[in-house]
């Protein structure tokens, strides 16, 4: 299951580097949950041909990620944004417990709002 999610993410990031057929086969296999036999039948090729095309496409995606690391950078960015939201919440809680400052409240709401909008 984790591999499926990883391939789907890599396909979103690097799919344009693949041939249209490779993209289609990966989409059919990972996103549409078709079997190799179903894809082969629909495309008029052998099951082995579909498997080979998928394996080559996966190799291209993994090679791109190892060179560019966009997926890892996105994960790191998401983690950082989650930390920012948590810190804003902690500051707001402290502010509520220690003499409510409207300015601090407004800024923590703004910080949290910006961080959450960047995760969408």
Any overview of this molecule?
- With 120 residues, this protein is mostly helical.
- It has 2 domains: 67 residues, Orthogonal Bundle (Arc Repressor Mutant, subunit A); 46 residues.
- The protein is 83% helix and 0% strand.
- It contains 6 helices and no strands.
- α1 packs antiparallel against α2.
- The protein is elongated and about 70 Å long.
- The chain starts with a helix and ends with a helix.
- The mean pLDDT is 94.
- Pick out the low-confidence regions: none
**How many individual β-strands?**
0
Total domain units: 2
Structural class: mainly alpha
CATH superfamily label of the largest domain: Winged helix-like DNA-binding domain superfamily/Winged helix DNA-binding domain
Global morphology: elongated
CATH architecture of the largest domain: Orthogonal Bundle
Biggest sheet overview: none
Tell me, what is the CATH class of the largest domain?
A: Mainly Alpha
Quick structural summary:
With 120 residues, this protein is mainly alpha-helical. Helices cover 83% and strands 0% of the residues.
Can you tag this structure with a few keywords?
single chain; 120 residues; mainly alpha; Arc Repressor Mutant, subunit A; elongated
């Amino acid at each position: 299951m984790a591999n499926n999610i990883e391939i789907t993410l890599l396909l979103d990031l690097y799919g344009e580097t693949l041939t249209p057929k490779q993209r289609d086969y990966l989409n059919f296999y990972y996103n549409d949950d078709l079997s190799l036999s179903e894809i082969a039948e629909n495309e008029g090729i052998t099951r082995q041909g579909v498997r080979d095309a998928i394996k080559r496409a996966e190799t291209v995606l993994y090679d791109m990620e190892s060179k560019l690391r966009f997926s890892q950078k996105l994960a790191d960015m998401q983690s950082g944004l989650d930390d920012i939201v948590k810190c804003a919440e902690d500051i707001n809680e402290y502010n509520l417990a220690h003499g409510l400052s409207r300015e601090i409240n407004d800024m923590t709401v703004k910080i949290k709002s910006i961080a959450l909008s960047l995760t969408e």
